[in-house]
């Protein structure tokens, strides 16, 4: 897609279409410009070692600072990005930006901080995916061991061999990989063994709603992580009660509103500074 084609899409507008479709069309067209016009932003959410109450990492999360609508969340525009074929470009943009900012933090003394970046299936499956990741690392100067790529279970179960080869290539480079939203996808336990991953991220749905079933699932994932020899992060921790629960089950890394919402770079830096002093 060129910018020109993006503009032309606006003329597809048909008054018979319902409001929402027109709305989506106009968002789609402006999304093409957002990438070029510097309207995208990376927010960061702390990942916390709950025993030390210290951040060990941050997750980079894309935001669209829309000129008329303000900050838009990825749930609104990532599906559109996928439809118009630019999701991988957005991921790559976030990767580059997050690595640059990660390098800034590294130079400020946050040398153990790991920057996690979400990778869509579209990006992951590109033939030149590994080269592009390498390029982003080289350009930023950040050490590969400071980067973690988050892929969802459903990305990981496509074309097992291809995925596996790419994961091995990342691993050889010293890059970490975590399985995002774990427990909600369709991976089988036997496949899990084939993938050189570092971390399971327990999906927030299991933490959000307290129930016997969810409790059991959390327990199960923690036990699974232990037996696979990988670490485990619990997503979506909002309350002290939830924190106590996951601690009791043996999970000591967490991410959630209890610690921080995703915030812009400067604000995240301030929070890290306060937590470290
Ligand atoms: P995710 O990767 O699972 O990221 C965690 C999401 O949960 C974030 O939503 C975060 O704000 C939210 N969250 C974290 N803690 C809490 C909590 O305690 N309570 C609640 N209610 N929510 C919490 P966000 O930023 O809206 O992102 C949503 C999803 O969009 C992400 O889920 C990820 O799948 C996708 N995404 C975000 N940025 C990117 C990106 O750069 N590339 C790709 N491919 N996907 C992205
Ligand atoms: Mg994620
Ligand atoms: Mg997740
Ligand atoms: Mg998610």
TrEMBL record:
Name of protein: Bifunctional diguanylate cyclase/phosphodiesterase
Span of domain EAL: 24-276
Span covered, complete protein: 286 to 562 of 562
UniProt source species: Halalkalibacter alkalisediminis
């Amino acid at each position: 897609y060129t910018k020109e084609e993006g503009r032309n899409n606006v003329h597809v507008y048909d008054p018979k279409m319902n409001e929402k479709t027109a709305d989506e069309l106009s968002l789609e067209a402006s999304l093409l410009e957002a990438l070029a016009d510097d309207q995208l932003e990376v927010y960061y959410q702390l990942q916390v070692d709950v025993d030390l109450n210290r951040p060990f990492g941050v997750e980079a999360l894309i935001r669209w600072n829309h000129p008329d609508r303000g900050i838009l969340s990825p749930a609104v525009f990532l599906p559109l990005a996928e439809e118009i074929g630019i999701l991988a470009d957005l991921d790559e943009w976030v990767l580059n930006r997050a690595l640059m900012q990660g390098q800034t933090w590294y130079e400020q003394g946050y040398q153990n901080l790991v920057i996690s970046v979400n990778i869509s299936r579209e990006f992951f499956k590109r033939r030149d995916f590994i080269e592009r990741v390498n390029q982003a690392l080289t350009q930023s100067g950040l050490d590969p061991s400071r980067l973690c790529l988050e892929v969802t279970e459903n990305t990981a179960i496509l074309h097992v061999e291809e995925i596996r080869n790419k994961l091995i290539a990342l691993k050889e480079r010293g890059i970490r990989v975590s399985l995002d939203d774990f427990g909600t996808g369709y991976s089988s336990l036997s496949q899990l063994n084939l993938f050189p991953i570092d971390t399971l991220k327990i999906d927030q749905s299991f933490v959000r709603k307290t129930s016997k079933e969810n409790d059991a699932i959390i327990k199960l994932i923690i036990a699974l992580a232990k037996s696979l020899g990988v670490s485990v992060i619990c997503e979506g921790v909002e309350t002290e009660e939830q924190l106590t629960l996951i601690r009791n089950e043996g999970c000591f890394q967490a991410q959630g509103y209890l610690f921080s919402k995703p915030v812009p770079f400067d604000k995240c830096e301030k929070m890290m500074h306060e937590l470290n002093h």
